[in-house]
Design a protein that fits this description.
alpha+beta, Rossmann fold, Immunoglobulin-like, 2 domains, 4-stranded mixed beta sheet, 4-stranded antiparallel beta sheet, 6 helices, elongated
Length: 255
């Protein structure tokens, strides 16, 4: 690397006469389109360092790759880039995913029939315990020093339906029914304890990752269409296209 010459004078510098390897252009400017925790949607925003990115768009999100790509860009010598946060027009700030757990049927251990989701991120130590009962099953929910016990639950319609009972009475969790072909009488979850944990991937909707969202509009200067007016951009990266595919929000045609 050349020495920085700060005063007038004569300097001798050895220069290699051999062929030099191809080096990256120092003035390269990247544009990144992807999913961010917060920030303006669809509009290209100039970012010059990682701190500026986190201030404007937030940090790492489980299951999304934009922040990882930008971090690697700056960490490997990148100096300037443009960020386009993709999403539907009403996309707000991405909130941390709530802890959840899947309860599988006792008759089919690989078939979940209940999905339990914490009602608040304030309680992080929630555990569900399933025990057999003379009729149906009992469900005990513990967390934050509280204990809720629901007895004689079933999947059948009526006063003891597990979803109606728990969702009405519980202050800790919400239960969702998982679609399955298992007979109603055989959907009772296996006995045991089920601790809730934060999911490793985020939930993406088709509206947030549709091809049209990436394409944007030239006149509105949104998405890739908005990048056409920025001549200095030399490469475009869209790391979250695969995140949308992995989450089921994009199909092969969308890719």
């Amino acid at each position: 690397m050349a020495t920085a010459y700060l005063t007038p004078g004569v300097y001798v510098e050895e220069v290699s006469g051999g062929a030099k390897p191809i080096e990256g252009v120092g003035t390269a400017v990247a544009a990144f389109l992807g999913i961010a925790e917060k920030g303006p949607v669809g509009k290209a925003t100039l970012v010059t360092n990682w701190t500026q990115f986190t201030d404007a768009f937030g940090g790492f999100i489980p299951g999304a790759y934009l922040a990882h790509a930008v971090y690697a860009y700056f960490n490997n010598g990148g100096g300037v880039c443009y960020i386009v946060r993709i999403g539907s027009e009403d996309a707000g700030e991405v909130k941390p995913a709530l802890p959840e757990a899947s309860l599988s049927a006792a008759t089919s251990p690989d078939q979940p029939t209940i999905k339990a989701i914490a009602k608040s991120e304030d309680v992080t130590d929630i555990t569900l315990e399933v025990t057999p009962a003379d009729e149906g099953f009992d469900l005990t929910v513990r967390g934050g020093g509280q204990e809720e016990k629901h007895e004689g639950l079933t999947f059948a319609r009526g006063a003891k339906n597990v979803f109606d009972v728990v969702n009405k009475a519980s202050k800790l969790v919400t239960l969702e029914e998982v679609k399955t072909n298992i007979a109603v009488a055989e959907r009772a979850p296996a006995a045991g304890q089920y601790p809730l944990a934060a999911p490793t991937t985020m939930s993406l909707s088709a509206a947030d990752t549709a091809p049209a969202v990436y394409e944007g509009n030239t006149s509105d200067r949104t998405g890739m269409g908005g990048l056409e007016a920025i001549d200095e951009i030399t490469m475009v990266c869209a790391p979250d296209i695969m995140a949308g595919y992995q989450a089921g929000a994009l199909d092969m045609d969308g890719l």
